[in-house]
Amino acid sequence: MRAVDTAERLTWLVTGAAGFIGSHLVERLLALGQRVVAIDNFSTGKRQNVDAVRAAVDASKAAQLFFFEHDIRDREGLCALVRQHAPEVILHQAALGSVPRSIVDPLSSHQVNVDGFVNMLEAARAVGVRRFVYASSSSVYGDLDGSPKVESKIGNCLSPYAATKRTNEIYAQVYGRTYGMETVGLRYFNVFGPRQDPDGPYAAVIPRWLAAMEKGEPSTIFGDGTTSRDFCYVANVVQANILAATAPGESSIINGVVNIACGATTSLAQLHEMLRAEVAQAQGREIRSIPAATIEPFRKGDIPHSLADISLAREALGYMPSHSVSEGLRELVRAAIPARAARSAATESASVHSAPLSR
Predict the structure, then answer these.
(1) What value does the mean pLDDT of the chain take?
(2) Residue 329: closest CA among 225, 222, 240, 205
């Protein structure tokens, strides 16, 4: 991390800090000795993620975390908070994710992902942040034919979620040209890893499958299994955010967008078998004891294939994925299964100790 290389402690503001990606960013920044102002409204983030971050770092470093429960749609409150803490860098992760969710409720997606995004830009502009790094999405490529996806070519958006992320990119570039801000958009491709929520109708495929496999239940594949994605482990995304935040001002990616992925494609059928094998090994079971996937129809808004060209990220940021898909799955399973077992044991113990004594 370039900022730490110069022994400089910066104040970083991370939005969506109680979420999956946001909490990993906060943990890494604290580990690097940085001061972190974190906000989340807990609409999709979880308090236990914040607790896990505090527990994962030394007490002295955890003391540099300043957490606030706040909604980015509250412009006045948000601007006041940013003025008070005057961050040098903002990592904006807060959003309502999920293509299916946006199709069911496009208005909420717009309010959080667009109105909230502009609120963040305004707050950043007011205090003159050094760099504004934000999460975009591979969904902006829409119906573009051909792979791999290159940043300069996009198609028609296929969902309200994709439209909100494309709108973010446009606004960020306009703020860069109009107000002299330095922004960088990161087009994430199917991020996965620990702390990703397996519950609810809009849960991502990997945590949902992992939860089902642990219970011995069948997983669901939407489509025929040939649908493919460029799955990217969360540690790669953390690396990319820090590189984007500390890139030189003359970098070609300033006020632009860049793909963040592994640059490799995996079909859903392949992914399911890889995850089955990791879970079986972690639990000391035969792979055949884990149910095969059931097949459901394709979902509206889903695209058949997605693969990133990450050459710009390599050249402009020095980005090098630290984890392949298989390495990421292995790390995820090893982290998730013992953690869930420990939580179950704690719940059972609490139940036993709180039960009335038999007479």
Answers:
(1) 90
(2) 205
Amino acid at 193: G
Supply φ then ψ for residue 144, to 5 degrees. -60, 125
End-to-end Cα, the chain, rounded Å:
62
- Can you tell me which residue has the tokens 């119906």? 143
Task: Find out whether 143 and 303 touch, Cβ atoms under 8 Å.
Answer: yes
Cα–Cα separations (whole angstroms), residue 139 to 172, 229, 356: 17, 11, 53
- In one letter, which amino acid is 20? F
Closest CA relative to residue 99, chosen from 140, 151, 40, 46? 140
pTM of the model: 0.90
Task: Please tell me which residue in 134, 141, 161, 175 is annotated as part of the active site.
Answer: 161
141 is catalytic: no
Read off the pLDDT of residues 290-347 as tens digits, 9 standing for 90 and up. Answer: 988 888 888 776 778 889 999 999 999 999 999 999 999 999 999 888 755 444 444 4
Q: Alpha helices, DSSP H only, in 216-324? A: 234-246, 268-283, 311-312
For residues 306 and 263, the answer to whether their CB atoms sit within 8 Å is no
